[in-house]
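Please study the protein below:
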Amino acid sequence: MTILRIDSSARTEGSTTRALLDGIEARLGAADTHRDLGGQALPQIDGTWVAANFTAPEDRTPAQHDALALSDALVEELRQADTILIGAPIYNFSVPGALKAWIDLVCRAGVTFRYAADGPVGLLQGKRAIVAVASGGTQVGSGIDFATGYLRHILGFVGIQDVTFVSADRQGARGDAALADARDQIDALAA
């Protein structure tokens, strides 16, 4: 099993999602590739990137190939992984900007999904994702949780239907009980 780990917490020390991913790795095995979005921010897509993305590969200029090089590398990491571990703290009811930047760079028509008569079809099928979620006050699955539904949707959009959430939510109110619940969820994960 090849594992890709993606951390998106801005906190490198004391991060709940990083600690949860450490626990998941202890259960499933160490990640083969680690992408730390919180420690090394990704660029936002811009007009140059969009123009390159919508130019056929054989027609791209060297500058357009360069504009997509990081995106190509991120997509290749996804392609090579059987299991994707994502640390996703809830910031202001949704995902961190760093994780959104990664999503924008990997969701590419003709590369990670394609358009069909019935709508988009994900091209990264047969993979598993485990998302470690932490929040101070947002209850996972509640009406104000705009992170987990979005992540389930976007992963499915690129073909990853097997998505499990491990959550330590409402830590501000629940404290250690939230972490204990998350550890129980990790213990229940199938290897």
